[in-house]
């Protein structure tokens, strides 16, 4: 073999990976860009949430969770948001399914919804619901606030990428949803959008336990103004990967104190490697995750307190009442024992109605739920 042949042989081995062939980093990044995390121009103006401006992009991975009683109504009532992470898996907040016995049909899954008053989305049928086995809403602060929805059929929409790292403090994130633009206001028809800063934990851990601080992300603006709000729970908090431009899911709207209040950033369930990413990967099993790198375990324990979409940004609970005014979730659950003669479906609906009624009674007593 001549020196020329040897030279050509080695060049054929090393040049492709160097310049980004199928095995090279350039090609891998390009493939990632094609499979997840790309915002698309919907042609529709998307107004922003609290304190935002108009945007022209539509997140194809955004999923609306609609109240079933409005499935055939003139307008959808969007209870929560969610995000498509594979062609058959959707991730949201556990507290969105607030009944004592959560069921996959408690909410209707709708994709491609940009205007709830025009019902322009597509309904997807669900196969199963998995809420984190240690989820609960004690003291109106939801813990392990995450759930997975399994779709019956695959969808062609581009999913959001899963996070590629564990820390995102200092990044600018984005939130989308159909929640209020002002606390306690009428929900808008069109999807809203806002940008929020990912805030270091040390600046927002007041009032949270160490456990909560380790499994949540703070996002918003310390001077207030931009935030998620009522009706936005479960929606995705995304950031753009600085290397390849793809958008990654790092958080889920969970809860907060008011909407856009100074020194009260929104609290999001952490979906990064330091948070619940291992749980998500486990629960989606063999499904190909979108972009980034564990299979869920049974259903959650009975929530001790209702945790609705009261969030600073799109989230969970927004008011923390004095301890003496908080009835225990166990006490409420004890009042909702199903009648032995009811069938399973009727029993579940009766209990859910009673549970929601208890939430409204607490709200009337001064406890601020985002329902």
TrEMBL record:
SUPFAM superfamilies: Trypsin-like serine proteases (SSF50494). Pfam families: Trypsin (PF00089). One of its GO terms (molecular function) is serine-type endopeptidase activity. Residues 49-285 form the Peptidase S1 domain. GO terms for biological process: proteolysis. This is Serine proteinase stubble. Belongs to the peptidase S1 family. CLIP subfamily. Residues 1-20 form the signal peptide. Residues 289-348 are annotated as: Disordered. Keywords: Disulfide bond, Hydrolase, Protease, Serine protease, Signal. PROSITE patterns: TRYPSIN_DOM, TRYPSIN_HIS, TRYPSIN_SER. It comes from Nilaparvata lugens. CDD domains: Tryp_SPc.
